[in-house]
Amino acid sequence: MILEYTKRKDAKAPERANPSDAGLDVFYNPEDPKVVSCSIKPGENMLLPTGLKFGIPHGYMLQVCNRSSMGAKRSLVVGAHIVDSGYDGEVFIDLHNIGTETQYIDKGAKIAQLVMVPVVHFRARQVDEDSLYTDDISMSNRGDGSLGSTDSNRTNGLCPPSTFTSEPKKFDSIREQVTESWISSWLPNGF
After folding, report:
1. N or C, fewer C-beta in 10 Å, the chain?
2. Is residue 129 part of a domain?
3. CATH number where 107 lies
4. Mean pLDDT of residues grouped by 10 in the chain (191 residues)?
C-alpha cells in the first residue's frame, strides 16, 4: 500500500529504519527555525510538531506508537493517538514524561512511529442490560470480570487448570491428553 504525505519544506520525511519494521519513524520538526530543542519536565506532556500531513485512505487509520528506546531509556511515552482517515492537518505527537528527570528533545530526533491499521466500521446498538452476548458472538465466558480477573484462579473458561491424564509423549496429540468434557466446554458453537 502507498501512503501519500506532504511535509513542510524544512521538515524531515518519515522513514522506515528496517524494511520489516511495522512503523514509520517520525521526527520532531518545530516550525520555528530558531528552535533547536525542547524540554519536557517530569509529569508534563508536550505536543511536538512533525511537519507532516498524511492522506490516510478510508478503512484505515494511523496508530501513533511509542519508540521502545524512548520509553525504556528516557521515560517518554506517546499519549493515546489515532489519526483518522479524512484528517488532513499536521500530525502532532503528544509525548509524556513519566520519569523523574527533565528530558530534552533535539530538532530532528525520532519521537514516535506510525503504524497503518485497518479499521472495522461498526454501528453501536443498544440492547437490554442483561442481553449482551445472548447470541454466541464470543468464545469467552469472562462476563463482568475486570481489573485483573483473568489472573484469578478460575475453574472454567478458556484456561482451566491442567487436565492432562499423563505427561504428553513426543508424538502424542495434545487433544488426546485433554478430557473431552474440557474441550467441549471451551469450543464455541459450530466447531
Report:
1. N
2. no
3. 2.70.40.10
4. 94 93 95 94 96 96 89 86 94 94 95 96 86 69 62 53 54 53 50 43
